[in-house]
Design brief:
The complex is a heterodimer of chains A (282) and B (593).
Chain A: H1 41-53, H2 57-64, H3 69-76, H4 96-109, H5 119-122, H6 124-132, H7 164-183, H8 192-203, E1 208-209, E2 212-213, H9 214-230, H10 242-247
Antiparallel strand pairs in A: 1-2
Helix pairs in contact in A: 2-4, 4-7, 4-8, 6-9, 7-9, 8-9
Chain B: E1 3-5, E2 9-14, H1 18-29, E3 34-37, H2 45-48, H3 57-62, E4 75-78, E5 86-87, H4 116-119, H5 121-129, H6 147-161, E6 169-170, E7 173-174, H7 198-209, E8 215-216, E9 226-227, E10 233-234, H8 256-259, H9 261-264, E11 270-273, E12 277-283, E13 290-296, E14 302-312, H10 316-326, E15 343-346, E16 349-356, E17 373-375, E18 396-398, H11 405-410, H12 420-433, E19 434-441, E20 450-458, E21 464-469, H13 474-494, E22 498-500, E23 521-523, E24 547-549, H14 564-582
Parallel strand pairs in B: 1-14, 2-3, 2-14, 3-11, 4-21, 14-24
Antiparallel strand pairs in B: 4-5, 6-7, 8-17, 9-10, 12-13, 13-14, 15-23, 16-19, 16-22, 17-18, 18-19, 20-21
Helix pairs in contact in B: 1-14, 6-14, 7-13
Classes of the chains: A mainly alpha (282), B alpha/beta (593).
The complex binds flavin-adenine dinucleotide and iron/sulfur cluster.
Chain lengths: 282, 593
């Protein structure tokens, strides 16, 4: 087999794409000046106010339920925004009873408060509902083959036979029955302090639903609630980027060339989403 | 399922990451016909790094769009030999790549050379501290190659990657900048360092005040537009903050896809086949010669690709897995301490500390790149280990690749509530006003930490899974705790309001649920002695001399730095010797037994 000496290629500039000559030197990042949407800033306070006013779990739930959602939406959303198509949707994966519990539990994990909107206003329950019908929800991104060793040490990771869909089905059915038994009521009708004590019990693994430890269900719910609050609105949560506004995250801007060394100067621009929605800091 | 045998080629390369792309390019330059087999999909920056759709934290960093899907193949893990290992069912601790470009498409780009003493760590430790300094059960070894020998290949890799950084000395001449502990270089970095983000700037000043020696981290993120020696173009990094886990829409982060593939595709003798999962290397009846590989295509057909030379570049543990499945070399047996394949499996010993600045200071963690500021005062053997009684070290750095809000909100604030209003407030405050300092430490090799085949679980291809037996050991726990104790001086100088020091806790086992790094090392290491290394100093199998195994599997122990700079240099070093010696010889061993 022949050999040739090392030498740099005299070739013309190459880019990964065979047909384009130059690498894109300027990003296509939307600039605030190009923002096509009306600023949402002035509405943040309104939204906070409305959501905060809902003192009980039942009312908080109502905000996300089919019957009252349009009214809640009118009150909480800036008129400049088109209604999110998923906002009034009935859940596709969860039954009404499951969705009622899910919504109330998400709202306690991520409550509306002085920091900003809670899980329901952010669309988190719908986000979770939507995620069930994805490869992840179906368990296609996890190794699901047996044998399963649920009693393996926790530090060796998840060992249950359940996909995310099954974690929710088993977990929600389990919590509904357990709360009915212990409180003779549906979770979503209980006072927030009582809901919190139930969630704390789940977090501390006070019971088990089939082979599903309560704590595993709680951790899945907590993790998905956070994802729904902060994922791009494209996935159905983080409505109007209110999660990002709270965190101070500029979203999919992806260009800080001019800001990287302006130390200790507040970043001035609000977030932008993948779909191009913009919002200003409240 | 059909079986088919293809016409033979000169070289088959398994894997299309950095290691595979470098080897394929070099073999094509040598005029050889090369087939590259990649189990994953075709990927490109234009599609997988498109703006703005790729800036999606859920898809990129939570659902792991660009990573290996454990449903197809994964490993089993246990801490000790007397336990049953169980499958790594959900990705978390480490994130192997899959698809064209491998993990090189979505790595971050921190790009180091190895410290010279790390390449001959056993000899160095014995010279400085004596043989007794090496604890019982630690397999401390030399690489069998020196920094001086590798220097031209470190240099070549930096030029191909378009690496940004600041030299300390070039040909012995100080530049007045850079890392005082860095070895001498034959040339400067191809590009000046990236700018410090705010948190790195704070760290730089505090570290200086504490009496340490901060430097700009070398990063394969172009600080300016750049054309590499292959003619591949890079745009400038804009600190987009989506560096780790994502493809770079600016074409600023070096990747095999941007920096090598365009030139590779120009070679008429090059063929890339994606969705081609290599099942094993085929050996002839002597077991001393590889005849090619067999792979499974997307339709489930088993295809034999005959080749004169087989290069495994499937990533550290996949390389070891393929060697075990193929019977290349003798499997390691910890009980008898014989065999080499699976021996000296190591990881990276990282812990993260959080620093909270006063609420008037926004830390802007969403800005980021692979750059940052580090100190090496406690890395490698840059400090006297004599009174400390452990081997190894750890750089300390602010390497802010961009923190997105899901990760930010999930980051646990120790002692704080985990949900509800109080948590929400803490999560938001932490995101806005804190930052992370990493201690990314070395991990030594131990007799009872190794890789072998699992007796119970199988991959979706019906093959036994690879089994990891891994735990943190006393030497490495003490190293980490010592280095973290030194961090307090920096934190004091930062004017921080609060700090949480993340450190290894004695008795707390390796936990697969927390992301650490994907810097897995060893398992088929290089060296001078076939009893303790699977590969010779040219990455050639001692046992099957037409098989070369390229990747971090070759590291005898884990170093404090990120691995890819050394992986790339070793690939160029190996390729150089294949081209200048092996191809001219009779196909036998480059190092006589
Ligand atoms: C999020 C992240 C950030 C990182 N950041 C850094 C960093 O900043 N600095 C640094 O030095 N390192 C970093 N790393 C590590 C770095 O990505 C790896 O060291 C490097 O990419 C390894 O290159 P490789 O070619 O050996 O393997 P890979 O890039 O993993 O390529 C191996 C390829 O082989 C394929 N393959 C595997 N098995 C088979 C088979 N049986 N048949 C066919 N194909 C197969 C895989 O699909 C893969 O595409 C990071 C890793 C991750 C995941
Ligand atoms: S931080 Fe820079 S190099 Fe990294 S992905 Fe963004 S633009 Fe690319």
């Amino acid at each position: 087999m022949p050999d040739t000496p090392h030498r740099p290629h005299p070739a013309a500039p190459l880019t990964e794409q065979p047909h384009s000559l130059a690498a894109p030197l300027t990003p296509a990042a939307p600039h605030p000046a190009e923002a096509g949407h009306a600023p949402a800033a002035t509405h943040t306070a309104t939204r906070r106010h409305v959501v905060q006013g809902l003192g009980t779990g039942a009312a908080a739930l109502a905000l996300g339920s089919v019957a009252t959602a349009p009214a809640a939406q009118a009150a909480t959303n800036p008129p400049a925004h088109p209604a999110s198509p998923t906002q009034t949707d009935t859940p596709r994966f969860f039954s009404p009873a499951e969705f009622a519990l899910l919504s109330a539990a998400c709202e306690r994990i991520f409550p509306a408060d002085a920091q900003g909107p809670g899980a329901i206003a952010l669309g988190v329950p719908h986000f979770i509902d939507g995620q069930m019908d994805t490869p992840w929800g179906r368990g296609e991104l996890w190794y699901m083959q047996g044998p399963h060793r649920p009693d393996a040490p926790a530090n060796l990771g998840y060992q249950l036979p359940y996909s995310p869909q099954q974690i929710y089905k088993v977990g929600l059915a389990g919590v509904i029955a357990w709360v009915q038994q212990t409180h003779q009521a549906a979770f979503e009708t209980l006072a927030p302090e009582v809901q919190d004590s139930i969630l704390t019990a789940l977090e501390q693994n006070a019971t088990q639903f089939d082979a599903l430890p309560a704590a595993t269900f709680f951790e899945q719910l907590r993790s998905d609630t956070i994802e729904g609050a902060f994922a791009d609105p494209l996935h159905g949560g983080n409505r109007h980027m209110a999660g990002w506004l709270m965190m101070g995250f500029p979203g999919a801007r992806g260009d800080y060339m001019d800001w990287v060394d302006r130390y200790d100067t507040p970043y001035p621009y609000g977030p932008v989403s993948i779909a191009g929605e913009t919002a200003d800091h409240g | 399922m059909a079986e088919k045998t293809l016409p033979p080629v000169d070289v088959v390369v398994v894997g299309s990451g950095w290691a595979g792309s470098i080897m394929a390019k070099e073999m094509c330059e040598a005029g050889l016909s090369v087939v590259m087999l990649e189990r994953g999909k075709r990927r490109s920056t234009a599609r997988d790094g498109a703006y703005p759709s790729s800036l999606d934290e859920l898809e990129g960093a939570v659902r792991y769009k660009l990573f290996q899907n454990p449903a197809q193949t994964t490993v089993t893990v246990r801490n000790r030999s007397d336990q049953e290992a169980v499958p790594y069912r959900r990705l978390a601790a480490f994130l192997p790549g899959a698809g064209v470009g491998g993990a090189g498409l979505h790595w971050t780009g921190v790009h180091f050379r190895a410290p010279p003493q790390d390449l001959r760590l056993r000899s160095h430790i014995i010279e400085r501290y004596g043989r007794k300094f090496i604890p019982e059960g630690m397999n401390l070894q030399d690489y069998g190659v020196t920094y001086t020998e590798l220097e031209p290949f470190f240099d070549k890799a930096e030029k191909v990657f378009g690496t940004s950084g600041e030299a300390y000395t070039v040909n012995g001449k100080p530049t007045g900048k850079g890392n005082v502990f860095a070895p001498d270089r034959s040339d400067d970095f191809p590009l000046p360092p990236l700018k410090d983000v705010y948190t790195a700037h704070l760290f730089r000043h505090a570290a200086t005040e504490a009496g340490y020696h901060p430097y700009a981290m070398p990063a394969a993120n172009a600080s300016q537009p750049y054309t590499n020696p292959y003619g591949a173009q890079m745009g400038p990094c804009n600190f987009c903050g989506y560096c780790s886990d994502y493809a770079c829409y600016m074409y600023a982060k070096a990747s095999p896809n941007v920096n090598i593939m365009p030139a590779l595709r120009r070679h008429e003798t090059f063929t890339l086949r994606s969705n081609a999962h290599v099942l094993k290397v085929l050996l002839d009846s002597t077991g001393k010669k590889a005849t090619g590989v067999v792979y499974q295509d997307a339709e489930g057909n088993h295809i034999t690709q005959p080749a004169g030379l087989v290069i495994l570049a499937a990533f550290q543990f996949h390389n070891v897995h393929l060697m075990l499945l193929s019977g290349i070399g003798k499997a390691y047996d910890p009980a008898s301490n014989t065999g080499t394949v699976g021996r000296n499996f190591t990881y990276q010993n990282i812990t993260n500390s959080t620093v909270w600045m006063p609420p008037t200071r926004n830390t802007d963690q969403f800005i980021g790149s692979a750059g940052g500021v580090a100190i090496d005062d406690f890395n490698s053997d840059n400090f006297d280990h004599g009174p400390l009684g452990f081997i190894g070290g750890s750089p300390l750095w602010v390497n802010q690749a961009g923190v997105k809000p899901i990760a930010g909100a999930k980051a646990a604030t120790p002692g704080a509530p985990r949900w509800g209003s109080a948590w929400k407030k803490a999560a938001i405050d932490t995101y806005r006003h804190s930052f992370t300092i990493n201690a990314q430490g070395s991990n030594m090799a131990y007799r009872d930490v190794y890789l072998d085949l699992d007796p119970t679980w199988r991959t979706s291809y019906g093959q036994p899974m690879l089994r990891m037996t891994f735990d943190w050991k006393d030497n490495d726990i003490r190293m980490n705790r010592y280095v973290i104790s030194q961090l307090a001086n920096v934190v004091k100088a930062l004017g921080a309001q609060d700090a949480h020091y993340g450190m290894r806790e004695p008795g707390k086992p390796f936990d697969v649920r927390d992301y650490q790094t994907t810097h897995l090392c060893g398992g088929a290491v290089m060296g001078d002695d076939p009893k303790t290394s699977a590969l010779n100093r040219y990455l050639q199998s001692w046992d099957v001399p037409n098989v070369f195994v390229v990747g971090a599997n070759a590291f005898p122990q884990g170093m404090g730095y990120n691995p890819t700079g050394l992986v790339a240099a070793l690939a160029y070093w190996s390729a150089h010797h294949i081209r200048t010696q092996w191809l001219k010889g009779n196909g036998g061993p480059l190092v006589a037994l």
